[in-house]
Amino acid sequence: MQMNQTGAGALSGCKVVDLSRVLGGPYCTQILGDHGADVIKIEPPAGDETRGWGPPFLDGTASYFLGVNRNKYGLSLDLSLPQGQAFLRTLLKDADVLVENFKPGTLEKWGLDSKSLADEFPRLVHCRISGFGADGPLGGLPGYDACAQALCGLMSVNGNADGAPTRVGLPVVDMVTGLNAALAILLAINERNRSGKGQFLDITLFDCAISLLHPHAANYFLSGDIPQRTGNAHPNIAPYDSFPTRDGEIFLAVGNNRQFELLGKVLEAPWLARDERFASNADRLKNRQILRALLTDLLKGHVAADLAQTLLETGVPAAPVLNAGELLNHPHTHHRGMVIEEGSYRAIASPIKLSRTPATLRRLPPAFGQHNEEFGAV
Fold first, then answer.
1. What residues does 118 pair with on adjacent strands?
2. Matching PANTHER family, A to Z (predicted)?
């Protein structure tokens, strides 16, 4: 990400009012802000709770908040009060987008329901992020990432075959919900260019979690079999798993016969591709345990990173299994500009690379209520 640039940005001139907290909404609006939108983050009097989700802290603010709230103005406002609601309406007069993740019914009781907003601000794109939506058997109930992982089948297919269902080790549902919300906003803005009208976007953790169930849902629809946990192994491909080496784990992602043949050559075991037990992917799946034992023996003398580099250069997908520190200090991470450093602020940069209008860092994550005076917030 380019640093301290004031270039146009792909979303320059787009005004976003962000009432969201925690992760899904803030992640969405940071994407918009990185690409030039003017994002006005409004926090309740108690603040976004993730400000306290630490340690670690920087100047009293938790890293969790800092990671998803750059490129935003920071205001504090009590929307339960009439004057707070009135100030919000002044911001919405020329806003393009409203993002919020209140529990369904909250804005309604303040007279800020989607219909009223549409009537008063017909060009406004109103994006609501919620757990389950407003209606249906679970409508109106609060949603949380880990609970969505449990309810929507993600935990059931994550973990070792002989172990318990396991939460994915990052808030994948919240983050993919934020991504889908950003995508929905861009779709709605594009449609507004034709119709002149905004619309209401109903984005839920429940729906987004279900959308992640590939290929497990596809397998279930076709076979009727309940997907099972397979550890690091793939349910449809072999060898597609992590294996021990002399100094750590390597992940092999061999997706076709040509790659399997090349793997055998690199490992000085060309006979693997000639073994009828491994002639096709279906054969390799059927005999995956035998294949795993053979590969484990062939890999035990290799250095993971060196072998992965050789395999990649040969055309075989492979990677050493790195920890977060190793990855964030990897030379290619820095070559791709994926770490931002500005004073004491360090963060992951935008992965969205545009040639003429790149993402920029224009504002560090705001202190609580930092821009109240500038905006005349009550």
1. none
2. SUCCINATE--HYDROXYMETHYLGLUTARATE COA-TRANSFERASE (PTHR48207:SF3)
Q: Are residues 83 and 206 in the same domain?
A: yes
Domain membership flag for residue 360: yes
Count of structural domains within the chain:
2
96 is an active site residue: no
221: in domain: no
Largest CA distance in the chain: 77
- Both 136 and 192 in one domain: the answer is yes
291 in the same domain as 176 = no
- Domain residues for the domain of 304 are 249-320
The pLDDT value recorded for residue 8 is 79
Phi–psi pair at 321, nearest 5 degrees: -90, 105
List the catalytic residue out of 18, 34, 38, 174. 174
DSSP character string of 211-273: HT-TTHHHHHHHH-PPP---TTS-SS-SSEEEEE-SSSEEEEE--SHHHHHHHHHHTT-THHH
> How much is the pLDDT for 7?
60
Statement to judge: residues 92 and 60 lie in one domain: yes
Cβ-count burial 117-138 (b if 16+ within 10 Å, e if not): bbeebeebbbbbbbbbbbeeee
Q: If residue 289 lies in a helix (H) or strand (E), which one and from where to where?
A: helix 288-299
User: Residue 2's pLDDT is what?
Assistant: 55
The closest alpha carbon to 133, from 121, 123, 142, 124, belongs to: 142
| Selection from 132, 145, 200, 148 nearest residue 175 by Cα | 145
Cα–Cα distance, 103 to 282 (Å, whole number) = 47
Residue 42 in domain: yes
Token representation of residue 209: 């979690």
Q: What is the pLDDT of residue 4?
A: 47
Phi, psi of 226 (to 5 degrees): -70, 125
The sign of the torsion formed by the CA atoms of 331, 337, 339, 342 equals positive
Instruction: Examine the domain organization and report whether 315 and 340 are in the same domain.
Output: no
Weakly modelled stretches of the chain, pLDDT under 70 = 1-7, 378
